[in-house]
Amino acid sequence: MEGYKIPGLPKIIPVVKHILKKPKIGSIKYSRWTPQEITTLLAAYKEHGKNWNLISQQYLPDRPPSTIRRKYIHLEKIKARPTSEYNTWTSKDDETLRMATNEYGVGKWSEIRKKFFSDRSSAQVQERWKVLSKTKFGKWSSEEDKKLQELAKQYKEDYRVISEILKRPVHSVYVRYRRLQTPKWTIEELDKLRDLLKEYGKNWERIEQMMPERNGWEIKKAADTLVCVNPFVNRRMWSKTEKGLIKEGVTMYGNNWVKVSQVVGTRSHKQCQRYWQIEQGKEKIRKTDSDHILS
């Protein structure tokens, strides 16, 4: 027997060799999950959270951690479906979720979960909202615009109620209605705004006092989007300096055009966005032509 002798002791202490067997490749389970495994996974998660390695070792040794993680995420999503056997959302829960989303906004799932649904995950809350709202995004149709104006009169501009009826985010409803209610700017108004910007800069409160027929939101919007109004932006060809600055701005802030325009200094955020999109399109054409020549 192999062993070693400790000085002062007559006996030889045997050395026990432990052979650690590597799991066979075929031993990892890739078959359909059984109901018992799913129950085990949910119970283990409740006890240990996202410790997938521990859950794999102690509860589901035939399933690798990555597979367990993917399965749990999938289960979280299907729990929110109205036809799911795991669905435990009551009509009261749904009403609470609608109220919370109107208050905190779409996408604030972590905050909503902490405040109202501490026994659920953010993923469950998000998936349930998708089922409830079928929230619309993108361009508004003429039918929606007409309906929005009718609802605004009916509900006295209660944007939360209108949002639920139109299945549009509250902020989107508010902005769209304001835009529909904003009369077009006349040439005389634009000239006046340009002169006021020259005199008062971005002192919006003072400019609003001088243009009582327009509110602050309309004035800022016009100054930000209408290049012909803003006396502080360059409307000529882009200079080499400006081209260099916009590259620096995009490198620093990506597609945050407000920040990029601050780096450039002489262009509005709309000008920066438009210029960069055109340049990127030209670059793609140059690359395509170069590839054709080389091939």
UniProtKB/TrEMBL annotation:
Keywords: DNA-binding, Nucleus, Transcription, Transcription regulation. The keyword Zinc-finger does not apply. The keyword Transcription applies. GO terms for biological process: snRNA transcription by RNA polymerase II; snRNA transcription by RNA polymerase III. InterPro entries: Homeodomain-like_sf, Myb-like_DNA-bd, Myb_dom, SANT/Myb, SANT_dom. GO terms for cellular component: snRNA-activating protein complex. Residues 25-76, 81-133, 184-227, 230-277 form the Myb-like domain. Residues 237-281 form the SANT domain. Pfam families: Myb_DNA-bind_6, Myb_DNA-binding. Residues 88-137, 230-284 form the HTH myb-type domain. One of its GO terms (molecular function) is RNA polymerase III type 3 promoter sequence-specific DNA binding. It comes from the Eukaryota. Transmembrane segments: none annotated. This is 9852_t:CDS:1.
